[in-house]
């Protein structure tokens, strides 16, 4: 592939790369650096505090994060995206890569951005999201982050499935594990911390819960009633784990627990743990079936009792092989290969306006489809 001019749009809340939590921003950072290494001309739109090595245009203030989850979130996001697409319309790019999902796709559509666009869908695709994607599927190259994410939306025209990546070399590795279990996740009912507590109790191992409590009322009540009463010598809660402390926990834990209560479309924390040589014990929901290689990088179980029993099989996992498997399957090069193919498809199926003044340049038929 030749050199491309790429506009990559990150969300406005967290710097790229993130200093703590920020899964999308971590993906943008890894992908952006690999695209630059390959010689592409990349511009990343993000918030203040992002790494200038990524050719960042910072169009959101660094304190806007405080508005996330408040009534001001929507107007902040709209302000940022209006600035982004006014900038993009005034420049020349070969392709736009959207990571803000629905607001960014909608604004690109209404403003008539005159370049082909690719959008990575990072979240759940439910019936309402499905309806929206059906409206834009021929104008935007849609990319899923797992096969599991597409379940229920197989009728959507997906251009690609590209797994997220981690930088295994930046994570700490330890072949020797300490006697504790870990769950690294936001504290919310969907993440199943109450199940992790039960798994650790039945396995007779201490548990470390690392993650902030989500600010919504449901999550705060969940923490108060289901988690806080069990905190003590056997269950430790660390509210904000970042940097070296996070790497240390990931490398030393006997296993990462992932007893999720929803069909999570990826699960970057699982991949980070496996890249640290730490196996994952997970419920077989969402993308866990794609990410966990049973007997190599972890095990899958249907109940807390099954996961507790699987703790006894952790000695079968070779940490070196676990890390090597993840480094091969979920690396930045492989992710960039997938997105370069998505960019190429978006550009090859891009059609000029049918009439002067038309505000949205429509995508032509995809490969293998008949012309209308």
UniProtKB/TrEMBL annotation:
Coiled-coil blocks: none
Entries under Gene3D superfamilies matching the protein: Glycogen Phosphorylase B
Domain Glycosyl transferase family residues, every copy: 176-318
Domain Glycosyltransferase subfamily 4-like N-terminal intervals: 21-168
GO MF annotations, alphabetized: glycosyltransferase activity
Annotated PANTHER family: BLL5217 PROTEIN, GLYCOSYLTRANSFERASE
Protein name as it appears in the record: Glycosyltransferase family 4 protein
């Amino acid at each position: 592939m030749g050199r491309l001019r790429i506009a990559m749009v990150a969300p406005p809340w967290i710097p790229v790369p993130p200093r703590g939590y920020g899964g999308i921003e971590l993906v943008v950072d890894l992908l952006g650096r690999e695209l630059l290494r390959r010689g592409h001309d990349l511009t990343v739109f993000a918030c203040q505090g992002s790494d200038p090595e990524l050719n960042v245009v910072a169009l959101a203030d660094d304190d806007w994060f405080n508005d996330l989850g408040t009534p001001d979130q929507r107007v902040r996001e709209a302000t940022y995206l209006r600035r982004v697409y006014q900038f993009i319309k005034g420049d020349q790019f070969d392709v736009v890569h959207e990571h803000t999902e629905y607001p960014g796709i909608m604004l690109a559509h209404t403003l008539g951005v005159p370049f082909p666009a690719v959008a990575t869908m990072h979240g759940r695709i439910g019936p309402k999201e499905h309806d929206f994607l059906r409206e834009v599927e021929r104008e935007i190259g849609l990319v899923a982050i797992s096969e599991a994410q597409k379940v229920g939306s197989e009728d959507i025209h997906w251009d690609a499935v590209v797994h997220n990546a981690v930088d295994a070399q930046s994570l700490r590795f330890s072949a020797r594990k300490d006697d504790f279990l870990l769950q690294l996740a936001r504290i919310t009912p969907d993440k199943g911390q109450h199940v992790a507590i039960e798994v650790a109790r039945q396995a007779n191992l201490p548990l470390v819960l690392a993650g902030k409590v989500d600010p919504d009322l449901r999550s705060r009540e969940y923490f108060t009633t289901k988690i806080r009463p069990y905190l003590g010598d056997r269950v430790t809660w660390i509210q904000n784990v970042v940097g070296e402390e996070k790497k240390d926990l990931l490398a030393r834990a006997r296993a990462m627990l992932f007893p999720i209560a929803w069909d999570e479309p990826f699960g970057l924390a699982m991949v980070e743990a496996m890249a640290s040589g730490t196996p994952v014990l997970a419920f077989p929901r969402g993308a866990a079936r794609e990410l966990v290689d049973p007997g190599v990088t972890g095990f899958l179980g249907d109940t807390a009792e099954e996961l507790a029993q699987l703790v006894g099989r952790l000695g079968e996992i070779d940490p070196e092989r676990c890390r090597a498997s993840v480094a091969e399957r979920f690396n930045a090069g492989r992710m960039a290969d997938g997105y370069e193919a998505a960019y190429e498809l978006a550009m090859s199926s891009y059609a000029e306006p049918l009439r002067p003044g038309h505000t949205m340049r429509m995508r032509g038929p995809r490969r293998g489809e008949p012309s209308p």
